[in-house]
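Q: Got a minute? One more chain.
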Amino acid sequence: MATLLLPTGRTLPLEIAESAGARRRGLLGRDGVTGALLLTPASSVHTVRMRFAVDVAYLDRRLRVLSVRTMRPWRIGRPRLRARHVLEAEAGAMDRWGVRRGVRVEVRSGGLDGPGSLEDSGGK
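A: Always. Here it is, folded:
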């Protein structure tokens, strides 16, 4: 488990899905998520067989938000140019957290050395 540092200074629990299997599984089979899930590397997501709507933030290699959208279940998102990571949370969370286009988030702990360590490891 890692920590997501938001632009507001607030921290949240963060799961990181780095393996192909973990990225494929994502939030499938769950009824919700505490905090957020980071899929890395990733440039698109789908919500086929999901039980709830999610907010999706597409991040570049420096963890800057390229775009945010809400996806209802049974949707397929288009790949985003320049996206290297995808952050998922329950619908409405990104707005409450201040996560919007242009802001930068940080990932801490959970085997990572600190802010920016995802960009320094070539997207892992």
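A: The helical segments are 20-25, 93-97, 117-120.
Q: Perfect, thanks.
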